[in-house]
Structures are given as structure tokens and as C-alpha cells.
Amino acid sequence: MEQTFVMLKPETVQRGLAGTIVQRIENKGFRLVAMKMMVIDESLANKHYAEHEGKDFFPELVQHICSGPVVAMVWEGIGAIAAIRSMMGKTNPLEATPGTIRGDYGATMSRNMIHGSDAIDSARREISLFFKDDEVLTYNRTIAHWI
Ligand code: IDP
Ligand code: MG
Hints:
four-stranded antiparallel sheet
């Protein structure tokens, strides 16, 4: 069982697509174990995107992710990290396959709708940046064995 950090970026909230995208991940069968709306401050944005510090797009990236409410979530399931990355599609929405989230709803790199952790280590790191331990829930669903 894996946990992954997923964030719906400000453009997704502004465009009224948050529910649609949450629905897609729910429909796939993954379990939502934490969720909150928040406005990210610059310090958290810098930490979250630390691997991109120094790149030319970094200042715009940080400025944008702090520009309005986001939806931060933890999703759980077998192979959840890679599977949700696959559902997201390529970073550049113009290259993302139709049927993926970015392929269906995005048009530019800087407004590509969704963030998802790319590995076990980054998932752990990102979850702990955004959520306290007791905000990530443990519960069973009776339909689990049908998924
Ligand atoms: P990912 O979100 O698919 O993991 P990363 O390479 O980790 O992609 O980049 C983080 C975010 O930074 C991307 O989702 C995108 O919004 C933005 N980004 C990445 N590369 C560029 C770029 O070349 N120009 C503008 N924005 C970029
Ligand atoms: Mg990334």
C-alpha cells in the first residue's frame, strides 16, 4: 500500500475543475485519506519545489502556486504513486496524452492543473510538508475487495 501527495493547483480551483479531477482519482479506486484547501505561503512553496531552485521558471512557479487556493490531498492504494503520475500525464499538457488529466484540461506548462509525487521518498517528504501525522486518516472501505 502506497501513499502519494497530490495537489490541485490554483488554476484548477479557479476553473471549477477540482471536483472533476478528484472524481477521476476516486473513480480509479484510490482512497482519499487527507484533503484540505489552503493558500500556500512562499516558505512552503520554496520547500515543496526545492528541487527546482535555480531554474529559470522557479520564481514564476513559486509565485503562481501561492497565487490562490489549492487543494492538497493524500491518496492511498497499491502502486498509487506511479498510477496517479500516469493519470496526470506529461508535464507539458500539449504533450500529455488525451485521456490524462493534463492532456484533457491543460494547455501550458505553468498551468498544468495538478501536482503528484514522483517517488516514495518525495511522497513521504511532501505529505509531511503539508499534513500533520494525525491529519492523514486510516480507515477501511467495505468495497475495498471489489477494487
Ligand atoms: P511535474 O509536475 O510533472 O513533476 P516538474 O519537472 O517536477 O514536473 O516541474 C514542476 C512544475 O514546474 C511543473 O508541473 C510545471 O508546472 C512547472 N514547470 C516545469 N518545467 C517548466 C518549464 O520549463 N517552464 C515553465 N514551468 C515549468
Ligand atoms: Mg515534479
